[in-house]
Write a structure and sequence with these properties.
Shape: globular
Organism: Candida verbasci
CATH class of the largest domain: Alpha Beta
Protein name: NADH:flavin oxidoreductase/NADH oxidase N-terminal domain-containing protein
Helix content: 25-40%
CATH architecture of the largest domain: Alpha-Beta Barrel
Strand order of the largest sheet: 4-5-7-10-11-12-13-14
InterPro entries: Aldolase_TIM, OxRdtase_FMN_N, YqjM-like
GO molecular function, one term: NADPH dehydrogenase activity
Pfam families: Oxidored_FMN
Structural class: alpha/beta
Number of domains: 2
Length: about 425
């Protein structure tokens, strides 16, 4: 057999997760590479177990709306390119942007949706590609509540959009008929009936089921932050109801907890469930949801066997100060104090992530070493630099495995090349035996 007669599969059988050829990755990109037998990874590159999942590092891609769906709220080739570029370079996990669980639950007409099976099927290509790279990927499930039916921010910031542009101003609902910003660009919502509340609870569960059974995501995240519907129910600022879903802490948390129960009832018990929360509303109103409320709520989440609490803040009170001012005194990323307080409260009973302003790998590594949080979720830095994990490894003076397609030009030394060749040879032998 001449060299020209040798097929690609003789060198690498290809990843079985996709119907086209992409090489089977011997090691997940972003995995710490030992240059000597005694090398130990810094905290960022220590594996993290979340239920049945094992992350190869502790840097994840935070969900970020792209406002680029079809008019049916389905993914397009843009999303495959966008998420593919990220997962190829090795984050510990990637969370697909908030996807509406109900037809009128999107932030904008260009948000992704997952309220029907076809929307879920269109996401399969993204998930299969991520799995072909040995990468973990999940989806954030959300409902915009009183912040629904607005323009994508690159068209007009916080501008309500009517039916002529694909909006649904007459179908914007919230716990109470209170607009987000008085005299602003948001519509005044209608108050949800009990029947509608029960339907949205079912919608979250059904969307989670589609995410796992059809799209094959590895986990789901429930969006209960940033002034969207679930956050609106939690907060006394936006929830003035007098029935079983308003008033006391127990009543205001009921909606979110019933959603968790519904999601759990419709997906396998070993699928991790995350929840993102605004741990503080950063509000001048003394009645606003605060860190003590979040600690109390975290205790309930532990009982509900939530896998990870994703800590953010704000978004439900237009009077909140600029984010850059919130942690000015401590001179640290704005959500670090909140994550620290929650992690100290829950200990090892609940994993805690932090998001927002995490730009310095040395500082992030120290927070992880100190146990301030368990996972760093990063948004804007990944948009700027999809190879952020790789970049942070360089700055920390360590090496990580790269994908086979990229690695040929960047492997740090001969030994790593030899290691990967040996692993690939083992894959080929396993393939030949099948």
């Amino acid at each position: 057999m001449t060299v020209s007669e040798v097929s690609t599969s003789d060198y690498n059988p290809g990843a079985p997760e996709v119907p086209y050829y992409t090489p089977k990755q011997p090691v997940a990109a972003g995995t710490f590479y030992k240059q000597t037998p005694d090398d130990e990874p810094p905290a960022i590159f220590k594996p993290l177990k979340i239920g049945k999942l094992t992350l190869q590092n502790r840097v994840g891609v935070s969900p970020m709306c792209q406002y680029s769906s079809t008019d049916k709220c389905e993914v397009t080739p843009y999303h495959l390119i966008h998420y593919g570029a990220l997962v190829t370079r090795g984050p510990g996990l990637t969370i697909v942007e908030s996807s509406a669980v109900s037809e009128y639950g999107g932030i904008s007409p260009r948000d992704l949706g997952i309220w029907n099976d076809e929307q879920a099927r269109k996401m399969i290509d993204i998930v299969e590609y991520a799995h072909s790279q040995k990468q973990l990927i999940g989806i954030q499930l959300g409902h915009a509540g009183r912040k629904a039916s607005t323009q994508p921010p690159f068209i007009h910031l916080e501008q309500a959009v009517d039916e002529s542009a694909g909006g649904w101003l007459d179908k914007v609902y919230a716990p109470s008929p209170i607009e987000f910003r008085p005299f602003g660009n948001y519509v005044k919502p209608k108050e949800l009936t009990i029947k509608q509340i029960k339907q949205i609870i079912e919608d979250f569960g059904d969307a989670a089921k589609r995410s796992i059974e059809i799209s094959k995501f590895d986990f789901v995240e429930i969006h209960s932050a940033h002034g969207y519907l679930l956050n609106e129910f939690l907060s006394p600022i936006s929830n003035k109801r007098t029935d079983e879903y308003g008033g006391s802490f127990e009543n205001r948390t009921r909606f979110v907890l019933e959603i968790i129960d519904n999601v759990k009832s419709k997906i396998p018990t070993d699928i991790p469930i995350f929840i993102r929360i605004s741990a503080s509303e950063n509000s001048p109103d003394e009645s606003a949801w605060n860190i003590e409320d979040t600690k109390k709520f975290a205790d309930i989440l532990i009982e509900k066997e939530i896998a990870l609490l994703d800590v953010s803040s704000g978004g439900n009170d237009y009077r909140q100060p600029p984010r850059s001012n919130i942690s000015k005194e401590k001179r640290e990323p704005m959500h670090v104090p909140l994550s620290r307080a929650i992690k100290q409260h829950v200990g090892d009973k609940l994993l805690v992530s932090c998001v927002g302003g995490l730009t310095d790998p040395h500082l992030v590594n120290q927070y992880l070493e100190d146990g301030t949080f368990d996972l760093a979720l990063v948004g804007r830095e990944f948009l700027k630099s999809p190879g952020l994990v790789w970049e942070w490894a360089d700055k920390l003076g360590v090496r990580v495995y790269t994908s086979l397609q990229y690695g040929w030009g960047f492997w740090p030394n001969k030994q790593q090349v030899i290691d990967l060749i040996e692993i690939t040879e083992k894959l080929k032998l396993e393939h030949d035996k099948q």
